[in-house]
Design goal:
Pfam family, one: Cystatin
Protein name: Cystatin 8
InterPro entries: Cystatin_dom, Cystatin_sf, Sperm_Mat_Cystatin
Distance between the termini: 88 Å
Radius of gyration: 30 Å
Shape: elongated
Number of domains: 2
Family: Belongs to the cystatin family.
CATH architecture of the largest domain: Roll
Number of strands: 7
Helix content: 25-40%
GO molecular function, one term: cysteine-type endopeptidase inhibitor activity
CATH class of the largest domain: Alpha Beta
Mean pLDDT: 81
């Protein structure tokens, strides 16, 4: 027979299986909550380490053009306009290096004469019809690994010009 457990003051303590199971379950629950709390409050967990700060770059570089092409594909896909928008002016391009290349691109875009679902966009020109003319200023943040053909539009902010 196992020796009796003694509580405070030396009085015997009886632990049946149910009490022990509930105690262990409660301790496990507390431990799980503590781990979840620590994991969710780690301020550095979701931070991206900046390897090179934001720097103005040449807007006509191949990588900027690739990112802008991708951003415009996404813009036109999400737009409810019947016509395709095209870039008419790249205002500024900046690059920041993290675990990827992050391109911050400011552009002026305008509605073209090509409808969204036409087969060819090669001969599109900017609308000159005053009823259909529309210009928009957009800022895109594109995260890229251009050598792997990986592009993601992280942020898009556009306002009518």
């Amino acid at each position: 027979m196992a020796p009796a457990l003694k509580g405070r003051g030396g009085s015997p303590v009886s632990l049946d299986g149910g009490t022990m199971t509930r105690s262990c379950g409660f301790c496990l629950l507390l431990l799980t909550n503590l781990v979840a709390l620590v994991a969710s409050t780690d301020p550095g967990k979701n931070k991206v380490k900046v390897l090179r700060e934001l720097k103005v770059i040449n807007a006509s570089s191949a990588n900027v053009r690739q990112c802008l092409w991708f951003a415009m594909q996404e813009y036109n896909k999400e737009s409810e306009d019947k016509y395709i928008f095209q870039v008419i002016k790249t205002v500024q391009a900046q690059l920041q290096v993290t675990d990827r290349l992050e391109y911050f691109i400011d552009v002026e875009i305008a509605r073209s004469n090509c409808r969204k679902f036409s087969n060819s966009t090669e001969n599109c020109v900017i609308q000159e019809n005053t009823k259909l003319e529309k210009k928009v200023m957009c800022s895109f943040l594109v995260r890229a690994l251009p050598w792997n053909d990986e592009f993601t539009v992280m942020k898009k902010q556009c306002v009518d010009a």
